[in-house]
Amino acid sequence: MTLRLGSKAPLGVAGLIAVPLYFAGLMASSLALDEPHVVGKHEFQTTSGLEAKIWLAALIAPGIILAVGLVATLIGRVGMYLPALAGIVVCVLLPSVSRPWVARHTERFPYGIDFVKDTDLADNLVSRGAWEKAAQTTITSITHWTLGLCVGVVVVGALLELRRRRGQPEVVYSPTGVDVELTTGGAPPIA
To answer: 82: domain range?
Structure first.
């Protein structure tokens, strides 16, 4: 038994949507999982193992979109809409899901992301909580643009489908067994 794929358009649409969602997911997974490596009373950058987990967790949203796109290739031409709809759902959910992670990330980094007290004006580059707020703003911005991309895919797909349907001649089946092809805007041809 062979699995026969239809149009590859759904997979292309899924890939187009998955790329920006990966970067939004990277920011979100960083907020959710990142924590300093503490040795004694000193805080250091995240360990490489935890960093790998963050990068892998960022693959969840794009993986879902690509899986939907792969399944949608089995449906045919209308399957192009499924990854766009899945992208819309992810774009709506991701900013609200990541919002509580901002406070938790800020608590895990009491000196801020640069590990320097806010009172140390000479060395402090990023105030406590500033990176987290910027990350949340970035997630929201990326998902808003991707939401526009998803809606654009649906609109362009619908317009192309409408154009395709209007351009096809209508075939009328007559009871005499002679099929008559009607052209748009004109009289039927004489047989």
So the answer is: 9-182
User: Does residue 152 sit within a domain?
Assistant: yes
**Whether the Cβ atoms of residue 76 and residue 5 lie closer than 8 Å to each other:** no
pLDDT tens by residue, the chain, 191 residues: 555 566 788 899 999 999 999 999 999 998 888 877 666 666 666 677 888 899 999 999 999 999 999 999 988 778 889 999 999 999 999 999 989 988 888 787 776 665 556 555 555 556 667 778 888 999 999 999 999 999 999 998 888 888 877 876 665 566 665 555 555 555 555 65
Domain count, the chain: 1
> What CA–CA distance (Å, rounded) separates 61 from 59?
6
SS3 for 172? strand
